[in-house]
From TrEMBL:
Pfam family for this entry, one: DUF2264_C
Name under which the protein is recorded: DUF2264 domain-containing protein
InterPro entries cross-referenced by the UniProt entry: DUF2264_C, DUF2264_N, UCP014753
The organism's place on the tree of life at top rank: Bacteria
PANTHER family: LINALOOL DEHYDRATASE_ISOMERASE DOMAIN-CONTAINING PROTEIN
Domain DUF2264 residue range list: 12-351, 357-596
Species in which this protein is naturally found: Nonomuraea rosea
Length: 602
């Protein structure tokens, strides 16, 4: 069975307990003889193979420890105990190695520290004295090693929580300093930055809030800080709910998307910390619908282990730090299994999200969320305020597209030659040679004015673009003022849609494609565009889109002479082809100020 979740209704606590076992049991053949390393594939990562195999060992503990804490059975604990003994033994053949500054080993220590804090009876008490001493010595190194100035500081906190729980020497000073620094990243309204950066992605819910809520629960003596962590999480929940559809899908955005259902781990973390940020039934529904959505995706390898990728196995979209064991951070989702069965979260009946507004601005994220009336589809307009300074793979595609969709995801380039390889969905791609295209990577200026987002960006020397994004549900509008010192070609993409069974249209000023996976299209709006654009439906390279391995991309193309040019279009996408056709027949009207500025009357 390739999909270990197939046939599991994923509705009850018992269902989720079974899901953890079914996700972890296929790992058994991959354990090393001493149990310390789990090798799940042959692809490389930015760290050494030993750290990658430690990752495969440690990350399942995010689900297994809550399973055990809540009384759930798992047959593999003896293997884990052998692994802790052999992996931390500096004289043994499976030693994980001593960490250096910013080492991947520091990341995986957090899972072990969490397990020590939550279920010492499984991972500590059965160990002999020499194994205990080795494990404490190995873990304690996190207090002497440098970490990135971001969510990694929580790994030090979690390790010290675990050491304190088992009565071992730990470092309260290092813990306090890390927590103080982490709290300094609070932005208000429940939002954090992940360190001194502009990124506002899933690391806010599944790292900053997730670990903070664990600390608030497992460190009861720090009452005031715990209260702050809970209060911020409750505030954040009101915004984060807008990222989810009624069937559980979330908007893919940013890095580390191979962690998949960790996107929904925040909802269970609220329950773990007893934070009723939304009614318990609503929180439970958000969590379980999300897991069920993922259970229907082809995300497993033939051996029933999780693959690297998003909606299917895909290395093109992955980060350099994604090893074969990386996807098991998804098991953070199962934190509420540590709660007893009579907790209000488990006793509540699943409830739908309350009706949310069609347009919701998120100033802290530089986003505007558009939601269709039925809650089936969520689109996030991105203003270009975010950038990953450290340069992860495909950073422009993960942070700087104009729009991100819960149904159509986004695409990443497969090469640098032509529009099929560029797969520039929801971007204005510009070229001065007709072959190599540049897009918005980071903005020189970015601002929000209510529901309107504006950015100024320079994709190449001598070319400047000022862009406005405006919601007009179910559409959104894009306006660009392009200034170029030499001739350039432009290609503006809509949403990539599955190519099977599509009905395309290519005409002057419009392009669309409608098929079984929905409809996507762009329409030039009269009254502002200074250059006529032609519609094209581009067959993109396979495996460029995160959800659909084969897509086409409706696109508007034009050639622009040196000078100033105004481009304005309306963009529509809907996973229901019939609903898309109805909406396409009623295009929005361009705001008067656009025409006035484009024609020089304002």
């Amino acid at each position: 069975m390739t999909n270990p979740l197939a046939g599991n209704p994923l509705r009850t606590r018992a269902d989720l307990q079974e899901a953890v076992r079914d996700l972890c049991t296929p790992l058994a053949p991959a354990f090393s003889p001493g149990g310390a390393r789990v090798r799940l594939g042959s692809t490389g990562a930015s760290f050494d193979d030993t750290a990658a195999e430690l990752e495969g060992f440690a990350r399942p503990l995010w689900g297994l420890a809550p399973l055990a804490a809540g009384g759930g059975h798992f047959d593999g604990w003896e293997t884990y105990r052998r692994g802790l003994e052999s992996g931390s033994d500096p004289g043994g053949p499976e030693f994980w190695g001593d960490p250096v500054d910013r080492d991947q080993r520091l990341v995986e220590m957090a899972a072990i520290g969490f397990a020590l804090a939550l279920v010492p009876e499984q991972v500590w008490e059965p160990l002999a004295r020499p194994a205990r001493d080795n494990l404490v010595r190995w873990l304690s190194q996190i207090n002497q090693r440098g970490t990135p100035d971001n969510n990694w500081l929580f790994f030090r906190v979690l390790v010290n929580l675990g050491l304190a729980r088992i009565g071992a020497a730990h470092d309260p000073t290092a813990t306090g300093e890390a927590l103080d620094r982490l709290e300094s990243f609070s932005l208000g309204d429940g939002w954090y930055s992940d360190g001194p950066t502009t990124q506002r992605d899933y690391y806010i819910p599944f790292a900053m809030h997730f670990y903070g809520l664990i600390y608030a629960t497992l460190a009861p003596g720090d009452v005031e800080r715990a209260a702050r962590f809970r209060e911020r999480a409750a505030l954040f929940a009101r915004d984060f709910a807008h990222w989810f559809t009624r069937d559980g899908a979330a908007v893919p955005y940013g890095r580390s998307l191979t962690y998949r259902f960790a996107q929904g781990a925040f909802w269970g973390a609220l329950a773990f910390a007893d934070v009723e940020a939304l009614p318990w039934g609503v929180l439970k529904g958000l969590a379980l619908r999300h897991l069920r959505w993922w259970s229907r995706r082809p995300i497993f390898q033939p051996g029933s282990t999780l693959s690297i990728g998003y909606g299917y196995p895909n290395l093109i979209m992955a980060e350099g730090y994604n090893s074969p064991g990386s996807p098991y951070w998804a098991l953070k989702f199962f934190l509420p299994l540590a709660l007893p069965g009579d907790h209000a979260f488990w006793q509540a009946e699943e409830a739908a999200l309350p009706e949310l507004p069609q347009v919701h601005a998120m100033p802290q994220a530089g986003m505007v969320i558009i939601r269709d009336r039925g809650g089936r589809h969520v689109t996030a307009l991105a203003g270009g305020t975010q950038w990953a300074e450290w340069g992860p793979r495909h950073a422009a595609e993960k942070y700087a597209k104009f729009a991100y969709s819960s149904a159509f995801a986004f695409s990443v380039p497969a090469g640098g030659h032509g529009l099929a390889q560029a797969a520039a969905d929801n971007m204005l791609a510009l070229s001065d040679d007709g072959v190599h295209y540049r897009v918005r990577e980071r903005s020189v200026e970015a601002a929000a004015d209510g529901d309107a987002l504006r950015s100024l960006w320079r994709p190449m020397p001598g070319v400047e673009v000022e862009t406005w994004l405006l919601p007009s549900p179910p559409w959104h509008l894009r306006v660009h003022r392009l200034r170029c010192e030499r001739p350039v070609d432009s290609a503006e993409g809509g949403f990539a849609v599955g190519r099977d069974g599509i009905e395309p249209l290519e005409t002057a000023g419009a392009a669309w494609a409608v098929g079984p996976s929905g409809g996507s299209g762009l329409l030039d709006l009269p009254g502002a565009s200074s250059d006529a654009r032609d519609g094209r439906v581009i067959l993109t390279e396979p495996n460029t889109n995160l959800i659909n391995p084969g897509t086409v991309l409706p696109t508007l193309v034009a050639r622009h002479d040196p000078g100033e040019h105004w481009l304005a279009c309306a963009v529509l996408a809907d996973p229901d082809g019939d609903a898309w056709r109805s909406a396409w027949a009623q295009p929005p009207v361009l705001p008067a100020w656009v025409a006035e500025r484009a024609t020089g009357t304002r």
